[in-house]
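2024-03-11 09:14:02 INFO worker-7 job=invfold-0412 stage=load source=structure_tokens
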């Protein structure tokens, strides 16, 4: 913890907001903490209380109260992250940890993503596979390089079986089967009026299209609510980006709340505008041991949808071999 500091505002910082000036000098202090320092009068200008929007002038003196050093803040943040991960744990052994990833939390970082699962992991832990930011459910993490290697091979060889649950806007036709085809990156158009141009999506394309990849999904609508919605169970046989989301759209019933793969059909009333896609279970082979199968309970927004439409949360019996 530092002591009290009295910092003079240099000429090149004149005109800056107090809160932004402070944040630039002390980026490890959270915004909420800065607001508290201002509210309680610990952060002052020329001995007087000031609001965050106060415009500084050259030569003014800003009182900086005692602050924790960056390493201390980082340690506390790391502990908070690990506490969150513990809350989400579904399974753990000497090699693996499986968590129930919340919808809306990215798995890895990007240019505009600062909070993500990868950044929350303890040292030595590694992601085995990925889920979309808006998809909830089973996410597997390895505790060592060796565990990452053998678990990763299971995914690459398609010996790891993933089952997803979704609630669709409309009912897929046919109600069950296999959907397969080629897909490649493209951009959203403005067909439905409420889509922003230029957003990257996956699109169905012909074989031979540049960068096209083949995708296969088995699916079954195990329950429907008239023509409004369906409870669909899906097993991807390949692991393409947004594969399930695109395939449900192609079948005429995109996943409810999907902001990219849409329809001109209104979202049924009462549903949250959150992607209704959940990685329900994961089964992975282990050398000399029975397959490990992990199941994740539904998130709140999908539990609400199931109650609204009268869908049963018990795992349905699906004969995947018959759908191939």
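2024-03-11 09:14:09 INFO worker-7 stage=emit residues=324
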């Amino acid at each position: 913890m530092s002591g009290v500091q009295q910092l003079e505002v240099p000429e090149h910082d004149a005109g800056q907001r107090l809160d932004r000036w402070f944040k630039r000098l002390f980026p490890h202090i959270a915004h909420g903490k800065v607001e508290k320092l201002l509210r309680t009068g610990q952060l002052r200008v020329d001995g007087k209380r000031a609001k965050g929007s106060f415009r500084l002038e050259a030569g003014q003196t800003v009182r900086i109260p005692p602050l924790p050093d960056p390493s201390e803040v980082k340690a506390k943040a790391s502990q908070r992250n690990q506490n969150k991960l513990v809350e989400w744990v579904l399974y753990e052994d000497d090699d693996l940890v499986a968590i129930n990833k919340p919808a809306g939390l990215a798995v890895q970082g990007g240019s505009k993503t600062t909070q993500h699962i990868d950044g929350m992991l303890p040292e030595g832990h590694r992601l085995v596979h990925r889920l979309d930011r808006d998809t909830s459910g089973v996410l597997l993490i390895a505790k060592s390089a060796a565990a990452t290697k053998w678990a990763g091979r299971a995914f690459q060889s398609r010996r790891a079986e993933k089952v997803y649950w979704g609630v669709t806007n409309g009912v897929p036709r046919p109600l069950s089967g296999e959907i397969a085809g080629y897909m490649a990156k493209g951009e959203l158009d403005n067909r439905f009026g409420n889509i922003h141009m230029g957003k990257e999506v996956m699109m169905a394309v012909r074989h031979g299209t540049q960068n096209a990849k083949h995708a296969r999904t088995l699916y079954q609508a195990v329950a429907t609510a008239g023509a409004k919605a369906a409870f669909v169970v899906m097993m991807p046989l390949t692991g393409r980006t947004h594969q399930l989301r695109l395939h449900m759209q192609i079948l005429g019933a995109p996943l409810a709340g999907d902001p990219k793969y849409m329809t001109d059909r209104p979202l049924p009333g009462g549903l949250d505008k959150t992607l209704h896609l959940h990685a329900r279970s994961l089964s992975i082979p282990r050398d000399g041991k029975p397959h490990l199968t992990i199941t994740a309970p539904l998130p709140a927004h999908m539990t609400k949808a199931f109650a609204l439409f009268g869908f049963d949360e018990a795992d349905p019996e699906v004969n995947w071999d018959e759908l191939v």
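2024-03-11 09:14:09 INFO worker-7 stage=report msg="The helical segments are 18-25, 31-39, 70-88, 117-120, 145-156, 243-250, 300-309, 320-323."
2024-03-11 09:14:10 INFO worker-7 job finished
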